[in-house]
Amino acid sequence: MTRDEIIKLARMTGASFETAESMFAFADIIAAAEREACAKVCERERSALEQNREVWIANPQFEPDENYIAEWESSACRGEEYAAAVRARGEKGGA
């Protein structure tokens, strides 16, 4: 997260650092934004696989062998599992 993004979030939330409570609330918002950004990175494999499947449907001559696709599918599944685990950290109350 960039400095500008942090400042923008602080302004959007009206964060003031006059109390520890407001500082911790802002820290929770920052942590949630970072978790979501990380989860989205984990999900990129699925998106890339689906985009390539569309290309393969339109151009069957470019479709790789089944093992290649199976490995990519496995990688996409792991990415989705990682994304769910990252998001679950926020549900458990941990940063």
Query: Could you estimate the helical fraction of the residues in percent?
Result: over 70%
Order of H and E elements: HHHH
Residue windows where pLDDT falls under 50 for at least 5 positions: none
* Oligomer classification: single chain
Mean pLDDT: 89
Rg, rounded, reads 19 Å
Please provide the count of β strands.
Answer: 0
Count of structural domains: 1
What share of residues are in beta strands? Answer: under 5%
SS class: mainly alpha
Q: Helix count?
A: 4
**N-to-C span:** 15 Å
Largest sheet: none
What is the overall shape? elongated
Question: Could you outline the blueprint of secondary structure elements for this entry?
Answer:
Layout: H1 3-13, H2 20-42, H3 44-58, H4 66-91
Helix pairs in contact: 2-4, 3-4
Describe the structure.
The protein is mainly α. The protein has one domain. It has four helices and no strands. The model has no long low-confidence stretch (mean pLDDT 89).
Task: For the structure shown, list the relevant keywords.
mainly alpha; 95 residues; 4 helices
Summarize the structure.
The protein is mostly helical and 95 residues long.
